[in-house]
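Section 3.1: Structural characterization of target chains.
Under the original work plan, the team committed to producing a structural model for every single-chain target entering the pipeline before any wet-lab resources were allocated. The record below documents one such target. The sequence was received from the expression subgroup and is listed exactly as submitted; it comprises 167 residues.
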Amino acid sequence: MNVRKLRLQKGWSQEQLAELTGLSIRTISRIERGQTPSLESRNALASVFDVDASQWNIEDSDMESTANQHTETSREATQVDLEEQQAIECVREVKAFYTCVLTYCVIIPFLFVINWMTSPGYIWAWWPAIGWGVGLLLQGLNAFECFNVFGPGWEKRQVEKRLGRKL
């Protein structure tokens, strides 16, 4: 089972899942990246997600044994996983952008206050505001894929070019 998918469906963070299962955040992260969980970890995750632990083990072993038999099905599953990973990455980029905007909105006014208190004759706070603002603008254009010059399509074409085949 895909732990990340189940966790996101519940709306939990890795920290919340770690607290509910009694596992470490590092363990949760490793399992989400594909490391095989121990029996204790599987039991803890199965109880939190309300899934039968023995069924979980069977599904994982079945998935491994049938991977070679059903290459087309595994390709479709890989494509879905790839699309989910791309969507998650896109959401992370947008989240990072909003975090930077919030930080900008807190720090820049603070700099103007410092500027006003120390040297009101020269407004030097414009320089960091403009510099950081340009960087923020570029990050926003990238996060929302406004100018998608080096986006997923470009990446896919480059990988296919290097492999010499279609993905």
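The two ends are 25 Å apart (CA to CA).
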